[in-house]
Amino acid sequence: MPDPIEVRKVPIHSVADASELTALIDDGVLEADRVVAIIGKTEGNGGVNDYTRIIADRAFREALVAAGADADRVMRIPIVWSGGTDGVISPHATIFATLDPAKAEPSDDLRLTVGFAMSEPILPEEIGYTGMIRKVADAVTAAMAEAGITDPKDVHYVQTKTPLLTIHTIRDAKSRGQQVWTEHTHESMDLSNGTTGLGIAVALGEIEMPTDADVMHNRDLYSAVASCSSGVELDRAQVVVVGNTRGIGGRYRIGHSVMKDALDTDGLWEAIADAGLELPERPQRDDLAGRLVNLFLKCEVSQDGQVRGRRNAMLDDSDVHWHRQIKSCVGGVTASVTGDPAVFVSVSAAHQGPDGGGPVAAIVDLGEGEPTGYRYSG
What is the pLDDT of the chain when averaged over all its residues? Predict the structure, then answer.
């Protein structure tokens, strides 16, 4: 049986700052050698060349080593950074760590569990095709097993990081006589994310194995729990499965729902309620009472260029890419619900939730005593 999980969200005060992680360790909230995953937002451009992800990755790994964690183990910890804090989104990290079972709050109810796996290497010519879908699906299955989850319905959030195409990897594929799905590196970000979303959906039984022709075209095929990110940092799928299981104890529980479109605040509240937090019929942010640890969202511009029957110009804008516009929009909508701008909102949600919407996962603190979530005191 896996160990119980402690999870905390911390602000990032500058691009290379990991001081709040160090403070949690110094205060005895977390043990450095028990950190199992970190998921966060950095303030770069969110594109292919967003190096803030690499800077943050190095800062957090160095902080763990400085706090006494084994350096080799730290290099294997999945740290997933989503670049781009457009609008009011605030840079932050959510840190997951195992807890000594003797110190965990006992509970026979469903409680948070986390599993991690790496896929087989993904070749550039596999991005956008069923070869990548199968490799992602196998890694999700392995991560579920590590989390102690046997029923896919207990999986509420799958965060991945996968390779995208760069000029270098495109050239490599061509040198071996292979073709790639696209030679536009920025487009390959959407492609990698979408292909990964299909792999997650296959692993969890949400869909049957799609065809190559379905990738990026059949938007009716999607996962309701996938949150896929891609970058230049790795050559395989890094998979973090977050769900619930019984018997391990702890304070935290996760739930999920989907936003049907960019303005669907009901989808946010449904995810929070699904995590187990009791809410009134018409909830407001004060009803969260410090119990919400974080929301994790994917968002996507609607392919028809509309939201609720009203036309928008995001897909036609040649000055500001739609990635940045929809992320800023959904980030503002989400922060208005939670009262906290430090929310994980990631763009490029092809095959992750319905077209124009996206999955939402919520982690809440159901423990005794003072809750550990954010409360604005200004």
Answer: 96
In the block, which residue shows the tokens 């799958």? Answer: 158
Angle at 195 between CA 151 and CA 219, to 5 degrees: 90
Element (H, E) at 247: none
Rounded-to-integer distance, Cα 242 and Cα 191, Å: 23
Q: What are the structure tokens assigned to 302, written together?
A: 């609607």
Residues 252, 362: contact at Cβ < 8 Å?
Answer: no
282 by DSSP, 3-state: which? coil
The band of 176, judged by pLDDT with boundaries at 50, 70 and 90, is very high
**Residues marked as catalytic:** 161, 229
Q: Which of 113, 68, 27 minimizes the C-alpha distance to 10?
A: 27
Angle made by CA atoms 89, 95, 98, in degrees to the nearest 5:
160
Q: Are strands 155-163 and 226-231 parallel, antiparallel or unpaired?
A: parallel
Start-to-end CA distance of the chain, whole Å, equals: 42
**Residue 32 DSSP code:** G
| CA distances in angstroms from 96 to 10, 38, 93, 109, 366, listed in the order given | 11, 6, 10, 20, 16
220-223, long-range: CB < 8 A, 24+ apart:
221/351, 222/197, 222/198, 222/351, 222/352, 222/353, 222/354, 223/158, 223/197, 223/198, 223/351, 223/352, 223/353, 223/359
Residue 376: the pLDDT is: 87
Instruction: Say yes or no to pLDDT of 328 above 80.
Output: yes
**Alpha helices, DSSP H only, in the chain?**
19-26, 52-66, 71-76, 130-147, 167-175, 185-203, 265-274, 322-338
Question: Of 321, 82, 48, nearest to 185 (Cα)?
Answer: 48
E-strand stretches of 17-129: 35-42, 79-83, 92-98, 110-121
pLDDT digits (tens, 9 = 90+) for 292-318: 999 999 999 999 999 999 999 999 999
* pLDDT tens column, 22-53: 999 999 999 999 999 999 999 998 888 889 99
The CA–CA distances, whole Å, from 221 to 102, 214, 218, 353 equal 43, 8, 6, 9
pTM tops 0.85: yes
Residue 300 C-alpha from the chain's centroid:
14
Helices (H), 219-363: 265-274, 322-338
